[in-house]
Structures
1.
Amino acid sequence: EVSITKFPADERKIIAKAHDKYKKARAGIINTRHGQIHTPAFMPVGTKGTVKAMLPESVQTTGADIILGNTYHLMLQPGAKRVFKLGGLHKFMNWSKPLLTDSGGFQVMSLSKLRKITEEGVIFNSHIDGSKFMLSPESSTEIQYLLGSTITMAFDECTPYPSTYEQAKSSMELTSRWAKRSRKAFYSRDGYGQFGIIQGSIYNDLRLKSALDLIELDFEGYAIGGLAVGEGQELMFKVLDYAPDLLPINKPRYLMGVGKPADIIGAVQRGIDMFDCVIPTRSGRNGQAFTKYGVVNIRNSKYKEDNTPLEEDCLCPACKNYTKAYLHYLVKVKEILGAMLMTWHNLMYFQKLMLRIREYIAQGKDFDFIS
Ligand SMILES: CN(C)CCSCc1cc(N)cc2c(=O)[nH]c(N)nc12
Ligand SMILES: [Zn+2]
């Protein structure tokens, strides 16, 4: 069994670049019980045990090494105990590679109307049928165990933006207390890991304190939370100019909820290894295709007789077998195949971006390309 995070020295290429911007970029491999994750990595989102409009084997052909599941949604339906009884989330959704599950707090705050934050945890009413639930560091960690997650996220409070210094301080301190309880509740096994999530909003001393508190708990990896919450790219990069350096250099760093290609490139340049974002899947279903020519809004009438593919050299089914005119039509008439093809292309696009970034880092080349 190989431990979950092993950036083998020879496989990890940190190449000091000619100028500052790139010296923090790194390419590596995370070894887990369910296979390797090549970093920098983009993790497609499979909130309810499926990457929407995709078969798992199709997700695999795009090059994804790991996908995201979600504690909040799966605990409400079909229920963590039921998934466990059925053999775990890997078997349930027929995905045998690594799975990362978010700890649920973020979704409670963004999805359930009635909720109450206490020291114990978050009490909330299901957004489905209003029934009462509690998510705590212990219950979140147990749910992720029952799901069989390869990478379990500590239960945190995502500090909203904007927050005053005082608000961010008490929120970060709650996250530190919850991280300690999450770590204690984690059943550690070879090839599985738990990531702590640092908070502290835009305040560098709070980010430092959060990092120190979590480093003490010796997680297998660390996430930077509380970003991509409306602060904008400039402020996010300002935090990323120092926050990754507060974390152990030999452990994976995951920037939650990010992002557009330009956000990913900027964050990799600042030392981030892992990303997740609904943009390629959600915007694909809404008719937005990411291409090397920029974003194509396929619903635009200029495509209704465009007999060319989204990208002539893309190997995805949408580009190999269909035209923009057909995609335009499918999306306009809301045919399910439209969502499938657009999603497939976008996921392929994001994985190709990550592959190019990994190759450029490994060859010591600058990768300032804005995709
Ligand atoms: C499917 N994804 C959208 C959900 C996974 S990422 C969710 C997510 C996004 C952002 N931006 C910040 C945070 C955060 O601070 N903490 C947690 N636990 N999750 C977060
Ligand atoms: Zn394509």
Note: The chain has 14 helices and 16 strands.
2.
Amino acid sequence: MEALQLSSRLSVNNRVTCTQNWTERRASRATFCSAFTGTTNSASLSASKNTSSTREIWSWVKSKTVGHGRSYRRSQVRAEMFGQLTSGLEAAWTKLKGEEVLTKENIAEPMRDIRRALLEADVSLPVVRRFVQSVSDQAVGLGVIRGVKPDQQLVKIVHDELVKLMGGEVSELQFSKSGPTVILLAGLQGVGKTTVCAKLACYLKKQGKSCMLIAGDVYRPAAIDQLVILGEQVIVPVYTAGTEVKPADIAKQGLQEAKKNNVDVVIMDTAGRLQIDKGMMDELKDVKKVLNPTEVLLVVDAMTGQEAAALVTTFNVEIGITGAILTKLDGDSRGGAALSVKEVSGKPIKLVGRGERMEDLEPFYPNRMAGRVLGMGDVLSFVEKAEEVMREEDAEDLQKKIMSAKFDFNDFLKQTRAVAKMGSMTRVLGMIPGMGKVSPAQIRDAEKSLVIMEAMIEAMTPGFCFFFHLISFNTKQCLILVWLRWTEEREKPELLAESPERRKRVAKDSGKTEQQVSQLVAQIFQMRVRMKNLMGVMEGGSIPALSELEDSMKAQQKAPPGTARRKKRKADSRKNFVESASSNPGPRGFGN
Ligand SMILES: Nc1nc2c(ncn2[C@@H]2O[C@H](COP(=O)(O)OP(=O)(O)OP(=O)(O)O)[C@@H](O)[C@H]2O)c(=O)[nH]1
């Protein structure tokens, strides 16, 4: 039975408008990006180039280490991907402490650590050998560079080699110049092909392209239903023809349908197998012949380590592929697959999946990935994610409020919800330099605090409020007074600072204690001061030291319990409340 699932509300005619919007967004994104980081995308990316001049090394090291340089020496439990590899590499830098210059003798031990870290990360032995040899050769020939310590020099060399290992430049998806672009997805069972189909459509839709999915997995009937549901979720039509039709025929019919509807990109899902077998390869070859795809992408599971690289090689030899999509990178603490695929197979990783949400698919940037491996965060991805969830006008509005110290509970709620849309807190923190080392326990504490805070803020009056008053004269007669009052506690935290009755009410309505409400109110005043200072520094042209954020977080954790209660007793007036609030550390996790 043939049926084009009418799950799409996206008209193909919307294409032009979408493309325009996307171009405009890219332009504003670039402005926002340079405003935020003090640089442009290309300038930042250029740090990845394999340069060796003293000035370049020096400025690179400074740009990567100012404010968070100390952080990659501390070994703590890491919550983000590549955690194991990052910790392993850290051991290498520490061995060079106190050295004046890199020599053949003093790099021997760090090189052993690097080798061990890469092997533990499941990078294949020949790749590790080549990598270590290349790093050693460069390190020994470097000599003394004024102002740059040997451990920093080694970090820089390893960074550049990692970038090279992962393919150097970003490998973009290719689009057909005429007719629909066809993307054929292949891969073993359970690696995430069906999910990637929908994620890819979601990703391409954001670029203004209309998409259609073809359900070609005829062996697992649930795969067709799964694709239809995911298609509905991302609002993209799905072509299905049941399980009785051959995949090559489904591909042919689906492509005709896509051409009829003027679809920009067709993405075909195929069946997986537990292992590579001849039947699977023959079937893929047939489908490929019919579709003549622009891209043949092999979906591989990052958690399979160097096995993923071997699979890419085999599929490339058998059917000819254009690249790979690495899924489940969020669960991979080793990194072997990301580091090996290009070097072993010669085929680039084009996209990576980092979560189960439809938005969790992104281009593979070797430079940013190398930064993450070395525990330096990924500011550019952070900014891009932030731009996706925050409108530019909102950002400007927020900036004005911060500068005039008017950041309020409504803004706080909006911001925390926007950050939640960027993904899990672990993932968001992993993108911020120096924050990748926040322990899972700290993250859990902060997440719990946010839930408590949201409950309290929701119990605050947002604006106009109806108040009821019941006056009873006797058992039969009563008068109900109803009046409207402008109470805006969320907009004016001062109201709560001044009034113990209001704090008591919020505590009662939210099911929290009065002490917790007082702490929250104190916190918003502290945040106003801190954010204003931070914005001042950034407008002055430099990004504040991120290690200070880490230190301040630690200081806050050491705040004695009951601080806010003691202060509350002292602070009867609003002035005292605000002053005491802004001069004392807040409770654990709050406001950070
Ligand atoms: N954490 C995480 N899970 C993912 C990611 N990509 C896919 N998954 C999950 O992996 C599981 C398998 O995904 P599917 O899309 O069904 O895999 P498949 O390759 O189509 O499976 P077959 O059709 O059986 O071959 C699902 O639970 C997905 O949610 C990812 O990037 N991160």
Note: Residues 187, 189-195, 217, 220, 223, 272, 327-328, 330-331, 353-356, 360 surround guanosine-5'-triphosphate (CB under 6 Å).
